[in-house]
Every structure is written in structure tokens, then in C-alpha cells.
Amino acid sequence: METNSLFYYLSQVSPVHVSKVNIISLNDKYSYPPFFRFKFQGIDKNNERYSRLETIVQEFKGNLKWSLITNSETENFILIPQIFVIDLGNDFYKTDKYIKENSFVDYKRNIDYAIEDIPKLGDYIVLKFNKKDE
User: Fold this and answer.
1) What's the pLDDT band for 134 if we cut at 50, 70, 90?
2) 44 CB-contact burial (10 Å; exposed 0-12 / middle 13-18 / buried 19+)
3) How far is CA 64 from the centre of its chain?
4) Are 58 and 128 in contact (CB under 8 A)?
5) 50-62 per-position pLDDT tens digit
6) 51-54: long-range contacts, CB 8 A cutoff, minimum separation 24
7) How distant is the alpha carbon of residue 80 from its chain centre?
8) CA-CA-CA-CA torsion sign (33, 64, 3, 72)
9) Residue ranges of the domains in the chain?
10) Long-range CB contacts (within 8 A, 24+) of 64-71
């Protein structure tokens, strides 16, 4: 379920368009950090829905702190554990850099923590969006 659960949760907030990449590799969960690349369908990148989501993600209290990131060259956003953004920037696929700067044990532990966070983060996002909409 974790491989598509953020799609499920965010779809409850607004229709979602995603790239064809699983949040977790199906072959090896440690092959890259869990991340979810998406955009809300028909909603401009500067829409307050994204800033609201960013605030909710920052407020989430899980095993790891999570970030909602984007850049000027794309309409997409990436939901990713902050620890991987800090160390890897936009090259979060380059896990060898993260492992070199930390350790493979830390890398694996943080992947496991992130996987454990995913359904909790999704529940939290839906709860906070629905609370405001009541």
C-alpha cells in the first residue's frame, strides 16, 4: 500500500496527477529515498492549496520531518523526508552521496522510518484539510 498510498490520500484532498514512479521501489526499498512527485490537476502552482499542504506537512510529527519541495522549472511538487533534501538536494536518487556522508545503517534506518510515516502522514494531511473544510 505504501507505494501508492500518498496518491490515495492526496486524491481525497484534490484530484492528483502523478508521474509513473512508485514512492518506494518495488524491487528494493533501499534503492532510493521514498518520495512522491505530483501536482493537483487543474490547480496552478501558486495556488494556496499547495502552501496549505506545505504547512500541514511541516506540522506533521512523525519519525522524520517531511518537506514539500518544488523548483521554478516544473509545475510538480515532491513530498520527501527532509533529511534527504538537506543532504541530496535535487539529486536525491544519488544515494551513494548520502551513504558516504552518513552510513548505510543510517540510510536504511531513515528509509524504514519514512515508510512507517507514510500512512500516518497521509491520514494527517486528510484530517487537516477536512478540518478546515468543515
Assistant:
1) very low
2) exposed
3) 11
4) no
5) 999 999 999 999 9
6) 52/129, 52/132, 53/13, 53/77, 53/125, 53/129
7) 3
8) negative
9) 2-133
10) 64/110, 64/113, 64/114, 64/117, 66/117, 66/121, 70/45
